[in-house]
Amino acid sequence: MGTAEPVSTYLQNLSAKKNAPTTETARICALPRVDYTGRDVSHLIDPNGSLSLRPVQHQCLWAAAENGGGFFPVGVGEGKTWIALLSGTVLDADLTIIITKARLVFAMERERLRLKDAFRLTPTRIISYEYLSRPESAELLDQLVAPFQRVVIVADEAHCLSSRDSARTRRVIRLFQDHPYLCFIAMSGTLLRRGVDDCAHLAELALRHRSPLPRSKAHLNAWAEVLDVGGMPSESDFERIKPLADFCAVSLDGLRSTAKIIGYRHAFQERLKSCPGVVTTDQNSLGASLELVPVKIKTPQNIANHLKKLKSQGVTPGGEFVESDVEEWRKQRELSCGFYYRWDWPQGPDFEWLDARREWNRQVRNELKHAARSGYDSPALVRDEIQRQINQGDPARDIHTALVIWRGVEHRPEPPTVPIWVDSFLIEDVVELAKSCPEPVIVWFSSDAVGNALSERGLDLFGKNTELETIEPRTVAASINVHGTGANLQGWSTAIVVEPPSSGDQWEQLLGRLHRPGQQADTVTFYVYQHATPFTNALRSARSKAQFVEETTGNRQKLVYASRAGVLER
After folding, report:
1. Which has the closest alpha carbon to 292: 469, 507, 474, 462?
2. Which of 260, 275, 360, 553 is 20 to 30 A removed from 282 (C-alpha atoms)?
3. What digits encode the pLDDT tens for the residues 41-71?
4. How distant is the alpha carbon of residue 91 from its chain centre?
5. What is the chain's Cα-based Rg?
6. Is 324:378 a contact under the CB 8 Å cutoff?
7. Burial 448-484 (b: 16+ CB within 10 A, else e)
8. CA distance 431 to 453
9. 396 vs 179, which has greater pLDDT?
């Protein structure tokens, strides 16, 4: 069994500002080159011949055994469940703790029961990220680890630990600080979702001084500026990361910034793929091709008018002012589907609460429009500053009065909301499109209002308590948030995306439900509604993020390599 080294004190103060060593990028470039192609761990897992591993599973398990942990940004559908269940075996552990999403716990346990007669498995405890996040679970990991000497922690869907500020991530980090010789394995098809900062702490937990990412804040910031989507690198940032170009023996001097960024992404990819303890996937080995078909329909004039008013005045069809760009974006997406949410007062409207809330939001929106600056560019920052001015007795403006009035009533319970359908144009078109497809279709949606509307028009709606992968393929409507990860849905080859996500990793997961090993169709087709600006922007943003992942990890992204068929005009 490989022996994990103690986690450095870096994890305790990663977010603190400090001077970074100048050799951190050089450290990464000096790591030995490895190639796990062709490795075989059969002698470690005692197979009885009834089941066998895929090449990438052999590679990951070999890397874990050799390094006492692993960092595996491997693609969706590559068999990460088996890697998780067999990690403790190859590391000769007394206990394996697998952390995964709540809705995947049952499937993981079911797979464990299937594997226990085919391979040698260690005692295994499977828990969910949701359970780990609960207040009563603060000491859960310590309690599980305490009786054992050799424990492996496997983070399946490890992007769920990307935020170092979340309770569950803090608990995992604290566990390794208290028990520094534990082993850690991080796996996800979307480990680098937005940037290198998403997973630098996970790489260090897994591989310690062999981490393929910077362990100092200054170097990590420089890498993020150069590599991440939306980065704005300075010359000093390029200088910090320059050893990566030297590692690849390429010269990027004299190139424009955009070309340099792409060059450094490919340099990082080459370094990452050859680092000890790292396994990536870069092949689309499926026989089925993947096709995205944009769907364009005419937006009714009433919807167009409401969208225009929301954009110019920040007012919803219900007369509410939105207070932030994020809220406006959400309202735009809802209106693009044909509905908006309205308060549903059980005992009649509380006009005092409504008026106070509406005026405060109006004042905040106006303040951000005309007075935003660094340190004063969000609703929360505006509120803090206005409250400070009130406390100091500064001359009152309308915004000060609005906050005083709002604070007097904001404690009152917020009423529930109900969707109000302005126009059902999109729902009707989706149902018609689904019925016109010759094969069974999964209609993917995000909003409960859309799902319920599809159900009312005859589509079979799959909710939170049903396993979509257990049924025979037929035309159904399913939530992206509930069924868009983890499920094996290769029985379907056609899908319709009503509300396209803006997240590259969410798209990778969604496409991977159908476009995965076991798919028998020649072509997997996703129809994507693109009739409104929020939806076209979402797909464009997601593709940029997917391009970042592919250029930095070499892990081919489905959203990037999917072919674009001609627009379906309806």
Report:
1. 507
2. 260
3. 999 998 887 788 999 999 999 999 999 999 9
4. 29
5. 26
6. yes
7. ebbbebbeeeebebbeeeeebeeeebebbbbbbebbb
8. 10
9. 179
